[in-house]
Design brief:
17% strand; binds adenosine-5'-triphosphate; alpha/beta; 494 residues; 11 helices
């Protein structure tokens, strides 16, 4: 398997060349056979009593040859154009088919896979909470959790570059994202690498998904680390850039304007030109089997394009590489409050949460985690059962936590009916990928989503934040006794 880079493309090229050559050879042989047959027949006729017939046949043969030559002449330039055009268009087509197929595959498995990972991660977390710090089984449970987290990040990568990941862009300060990941990055890097972070403190904000920016930083830093097995220097730098006029890049135009630059530079092995032309292709890797999937830079590229930014690479073999990511500066000056982040554990005082999830292990885990943190938990395995609970219940349900894809009624349809019965209920969707029918316009006030797989702690914090918003809204609304609905807040809750 480790024969080197781009194995797949080499194989496809071979198949393609065979396909082109086959019919060509056949037509050449057929033409030769027909020509020889004509020649033999006309020569025979010419020397026999049927000379006029022979002359006619020779004339026919000459006309046929001339006709063939004419058709060939006409088709030749076209063929050349087609051949010249084939590498990019064929490659792009192949690439987009590959992406499509991977996207379908990733989307298909993401739902069930994320449910399973949520169960593994969730129970590991609950177990870790119950184990004392000196318990000898602690390290083993931590290993289980780490492995599940790696699997989750792999699914995320697949979903990201096939553009199926649910993204929640906010106005954010990239410096903050760099700072919050710095500690984790230092743990990934060996001591023989000198790591520096240079932040521009007047940095413009960008509109992006914080998780995706972390993914960019992580992928670039891990690549830089891997390129310096014997040590070296690694630098992350941020800055503001002004692009004065539009620039054409890779068939697209990068419009002029203000950009935020995130640069990761290393003094590692560098790359030759051949490698540089392939690095953004999914599954292109020069690493040994098991050491790289070749998805890192494909993911970075997909995120950058999704954020209408661009990426540049400068690399010299033996000297090092620099990856520059440019993201458009956001007009809004202040960074949005990053929701649901933090480490504090949520505590509840009997708020009612209705959990609707058809995967039983996940439902059980969520119910256990929420009731341990003090929620009153009701649970249903599908939309019908949930509606029965809501309609029979005398007191309000504070929050509906529902899966999106379920047999029978899906999450959004259920949420609509619950809201009709109980308008104050907050809605929190649990989702694994963007194919799950959650559109941005569904995320109105009081509706939010959490991405699977999540930890019980993440879920607790998210619910706690949504319920806090709810009680704030209620107290703001309290002095006003009018039944007029409050102006719809144009923000996404949570
Ligand atoms: N900083 C770098 N220095 C030298 N080569 C690099 C650097 N970054 C990327 N590359 C080259 O680009 C290839 C593709 O990188 P990419 O991140 O997409 O995949 P990977 O690192 O091989 O695997 P994965 O990131 O999926 O674990 C790498 O295998 C390596 O050859
Ligand atoms: Mg990588």
């Amino acid at each position: 398997m480790a024969e080197g880079p781009n194995r797949t493309n080499c194989n496809f090229a071979w198949l393609r060349s065979k396909k082109v050559r086959g019919p060509q050879m056949l037509s050449v042989i057929a033409t030769m056979v027909v020509t020889l047959a004509f020649l033999a027949l006309s020569t025979y006729l010419f020397h026999s009593d049927l000379r006029p017939g022979g002359i006619v046949l020779i004339v026919l043969l000459v006309t046929l040859m001339w006709g063939l030559a004419f058709v060939r002449d006409r088709s030749e330039p076209e063929q050349l154009v087609a051949q010249n055009a084939r590498p990019p268009s064929g490659k792009l087509l192949e690439q987009s088919h590959k992406m499509e197929a991977i996207g379908r595959l990733a989307g298909g498995v993401a739902h069930d896979f994320n449910n399973l990972l949520a169960v593994i991660i969730g129970y590991s977390d609950l177990l870790l909470e119950s184990l004392g710090s000196s318990d000898r089984n602690r390290a083993k449970v931590e290993r289980i959790k780490q492995a599940a987290n790696s699997a989750a990040s792999l699914t995320r990568q697949l979903l990201t570059f096939s553009r199926q990941q649910v993204i929640q862009p906010v106005v954010l300060d990239i410096n903050q994202t760099v700072s919050s990941t710095e500690k984790m990055l230092r743990r990934l890097i060996k001591e023989n690498i000198e790591f520096t972070v240079v932040l521009d403190h007047n940095l413009d904000r960008v509109k992006a998904d914080p998780g995706q920016i972390e993914q960019i930083i992580l992928n670039l830093v891990v690549n830089a680390r891997d390129a310096m097995p014997n040590g070296g220097k690694l630098r992350i730098q941020t800055g503001n850039m002004l692009l004065e006029k539009d620039v054409a890049q890779a068939g697209a135009v990068v419009p002029s304007g203000r950009f935020v630059l995130l640069e990761v530079t290393d003094t590692g092995t560098g790359m030759d030109e051949q490698t540089q032309t392939h690095i953004f292709e999914p599954f292109f890797t020069t690493k040994a089997v098991g050491e790289g999937t070749g998805l890192g830079l494909a993911t970075v590229y997909a995120i950058v394009k999704q954020s209408t930014g661009h990426i540049e690479v400068q690399s010299t073999l033996g000297q090092g590489s620099s990856f520059k990511v440019y993201l458009p500066a956001a007009a809004q000056a202040a960074a949005d409050h990053e929701s649901g982040k933090g480490t504090a554990k949520a505590a509840f005082s009997g708020e009612t949460v209705l959990v609707v999830e058809d995967a039983r292990p996940l439902r059980d885990l969520i119910c256990e985690a929420l009731s341990t943190s003090g929620c009153t938990v009701l649970s249903a395995r599908d939309g019908q059962e949930a509606l029965r609970i809501v309609s029979q219940r005398k007191s309000a349900i504070d929050l509906l936590l529902t899966d999106v894809v379920m047999p029978g009624m899906n999450g959004p349809a259920l949420a609509k009916q619950v809201r009709a019965l109980c308008p104050q209920t907050k809605i929190l969707y649990m989702t694994g990928y963007s194919g799950e029918f959650i559109r941005a316009d569904m995320l109105i006030a009081g509706v939010s989503l959490i991405q699977k797989p999540f930890t019980p702690a993440d879920l607790g914090r998210k619910i706690s934040k949504m319920l806090a918003d709810k009680s704030r809204e209620n107290s703001e609304a309290a002095p006003n006794t009018s039944a007029a609905p409050k102006a719809a807040a144009a923000r996404t809750s949570g």
